[in-house]
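REQUEST FORM: STRUCTURE PREDICTION
Request ID: SP-0412
Submitted by: Lab K.M.
Chain count: 1
Length (residues): 347
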Amino acid sequence: MKGSSTGIVLAALLLLQGCAIRDIRTAPPQPVQPKVRAHARKAETSYERIFPEFAAVVARGGDTSASLAARYLGDPGMDWFVEEFNGMRKITPGAAVVIPLAPYDPLGIAGDTYQTVPVLCYHKFSKTTSDKMTVTEDSFEAQMRFLKVNGYRVIPLDRLFDFLDGKAQIPRKSVVVTIDDGWRSTYEIAYPILRKYGFPATLFVYTDFVGGGANALTWEMIAELSRNGVDIQGHSKTHRNLSRRSSRESFSEYFESLKKEIVDSSRIIQKHLKKEVRYLAYPFGDTNHVVVSIVAKAGYRGALTVERGGNPFFAPVFRVDRSIVYGSYDLQDFENNLAVANGKALH
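STATUS: Completed
RESULT:
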């Protein structure tokens, strides 16, 4: 992959050396990834050449990776796509830049490594005190700032599953932020910080907890979160351990209870928010083949555990790993948590 990319860049450089550049019209390619939208257009000046699979340009004053992504891909948010292909973080005037017009590595394989994606799992937040499942406001702020400063791209959960389905290329340093249960501190503490950094997140709620007291989110709060970049998904109805059958339950009773936990919670969220529920976070992170079969049959796209690790393109979509962020973590612990999902060597 790296060799072919280099070849394209060299070819583009040679083509751009000519003084007389003729206009070239091409039909737009059919991208695998909806975010990459190549538009049929002709070369406007000697600064660019347009080909079916890529555009080659010489950057001018004022050009940035975002402006080039907007011009050629229709989305300034694809700046990472331009930067990663060219191996540069900043576009300087006179630099030769190649913009792929379709995904060139949707599986995240580069050289002898493959891409893995960490999914962070939070629970509760507090102004000043922490415990195993409670992260302080200052710590959460520092962790989100760490992601921003160190070039991580926080992507929506849908984008991760597009990657797992082989449908989308995502940034090399992608990370997903999730929050479990439905504590009010999500609204009061985490939500303003997420908005400050422009990060999407997914909140998994168990519906019996909503409106259940001073520490629980209300449906009004959840609706506001849903309108402002927080995707609301399922965490069962009562938060029972789905993988364990009670000694008082027959198998048929256990099976019916699972269906109620998985299906009813989805219906309740849909009723209140008028949105599709596509993902389930297993309570306690536990599952088994019976639970997975019910989740799949109920129409969910995927489900998540709390196993520590990263997710390559071949990760099972009904057992996606998430790494819990504990309240005792300092920034070094947080960085180590992310490190388990760095690129893995091919064997």
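NOTES: The chain has a mean pLDDT of 88.
Reviewed by: T.R.
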